[in-house]
Amino acid sequence: MKRENNYPLKYYRIAIGLFFFLQGTVFATWSARIPDIKQALSLSDAQLGTILFFFPLGQLVSVPLSGYLVQKYGSRVLLSCVALLYPLSLVGIGLMPSRTALAGMLFLLGVVANLHNLSVNTQAVSLEKRYGRSIMGTFHGLWSLAGFVAGLTSSFLAVRHVAPLWHFCGVLGFGLLAVATLHRFLLPEDLSAGGEAAVNAAGLVLLLGFMRRRRPGPWGRPPVGPRRIRRRLSRKRPRSTSSRAWTAIWPCSAF
User: Fold this and answer.
1) CA–CA distance from 181 to each of 12, 146, 167 (Å)?
2) Which residue blocks in the chain are alpha helix, DSSP H?
3) With a threshold of 0.85, does the pTM exceed it?
4) Angular region, 2: left φ>0, alpha ψ -120 to 50, beta rest
5) Could you give the CA distance from residue 89 to residue 68 in angstroms, rounded to a whole number?
6) pLDDT band, residue 246 (cuts 50/70/90)
7) Rounded CA separation 16/36 (Å)
8) What separation in angstroms does the CA of 5 have from each of 12, 186, 214?
């Protein structure tokens, strides 16, 4: 087995894979608990749609910042930081008292999500080159698996009327544990002979992902199926309905 800094490469593969799992968990948890946030702040569909726009806006604005920070500090340092900030931003959403504050927090969540996305994909691209064969599918499969698990968890907690804030705190605990135990198994360098190439390759992966994936609808459901069916599902349903729908569709994103 090949080694990198006295650790077998499989250790780095497991660590990076778990950071992908964390990323999928945070995103799916937020998506599945959108109905609870909407109800807590008494938002109309139009207001919620406007507020949700701030998440992709934060992602878009942070694209040049993400590349700069990865180049300057390396993906290991950046990932160690944003792996904490990402679930922490989720907790912040659970604390927001107003629509304006929620919009601002979603913008921050989008920025941190993009930072996490680029740094963890840079790690994956760097490790893939060290392996000398394609392993990227494993990482993205873990991201999809995380969405399925988080969807089931969200449905379970929503049925039992567990507040989103406590749910988000649990995800933050997972992030703290991941960083504390896995930081040492992140690659210290982004392709020792070509860090810029790793960042560019990771950026291409993200671009293709944005083109391929569609974001959840305004109540946390995946935007698939006839419009008439989606309207019916969104009316007078228990808060756990969207979590179950999200859980059902998430495994398909792996294909």
Assistant:
1) 12, 19, 22
2) 9-32, 34-40, 45-52, 54-61, 63-73, 75-95, 99-131, 136-159, 164-182, 195-212, 227-233, 240-249
3) no
4) beta
5) 21
6) very low
7) 31
8) 10, 10, 39
